[in-house]
Design a protein that fits this description.
about 375 residues, alpha+beta, four-stranded parallel beta sheet, 11 helices
Length: about 375
Amino acid sequence: MEKLVIAGACSVFGLSDIRASFAELGFDVSFVDAPFMAGIRIHEYPETEEITYTAELSENAIAVPLSEYWISYCKKHRCCRIAQKALECSRSKAFFYNHLEKSGFDFSEIYKDENSAEKALEKGKKIIVKPIGLHSGYGIEILDKSGKEKLSEYIKQAANIKNRTLRLMEIENTGVMLTEAVEGPEYSADCFYFRGRVSIVRICRKLITVINDKPCCAAYRLLSPEEIEYKRFESYLKNWTESVFEKSDISYAQYDFIDSSDGRVVPIDFASRVGGGISDLLIESGKNPYALSVSGISFSLPKNLCQFSYLPVVSGYVKNDDYPLRDGKKRVFKKRGDYVISNPSSVGSRMALTVSTEENEFTEETVSQLLLGKEFISPDKIK
């Protein structure tokens, strides 16, 4: 059997199922992750006995990257079966948007300079300031006309952003993009690409709220393949995925996209890995979509299963960790004495989460229940 390394294995669950699915395709799988991930519990089933923690792979290794660190490693060492254009799309939103335009897909308008962005704001459009090479919500700001005076400062901030996470992931900030903020519901999805076959891992509708000018994901609703909403996006995901990979590639793929108010379906982010922060949601589904998508097996998922994230709206120290959590599967990340920030755009900023079935649509009231302020957070260090 051909050997394959699943690199970034802490990002997924059910490793024995994933191993069995790859074995059906003729691969002997091993699991690795970076040393700084040792001891970190992204979810409740880390299966650490299956994972080897290492910063280096053997010279002849073939890797399937599941995280930003291993995308960086693959770009540097060329130890994966992923097309160069897919790796470049993973690390440059400008490259990805240019690829979308050249391939005939809808894409977000890019403003060539600050003056063009200011004119768009004056016309009533919202714009996004984003670092070109960073992932998730790092460094992203969203502005409308009322915040026009912040534009120059946000451009400077985005250009200069550096933090420990980016150093660990070996990600370089390569500049700033100014793009239209496409109006409409936002979604995220994972796919698996195997030598020309595209399988969808999952599609989620996101509840986005803006906190201190940063778009933050407050909740996910997992869509079932039987739903009309899911079926609407299948062909888009398959077409985008086929366009970035080559026939011999083996990789997962993650997307964020907007179902715009003018009828477009617009990708806003892509990476050749799996999406982060949803393991608890998928575990509660009772299925292992990561493994099932490798096998190419059709599967159903429960309807209306949601993950709600509790987010800080002020910076400071947690003084009260008795959060008003919804009924369901609960996890608390930030406890009394922990420091939290008022720009919670990354997974690590969540204070807690709940996974439960919610038949009602997301509303402004849903958002208000998930935002935690001065009742729970103090500006002073807790003794």
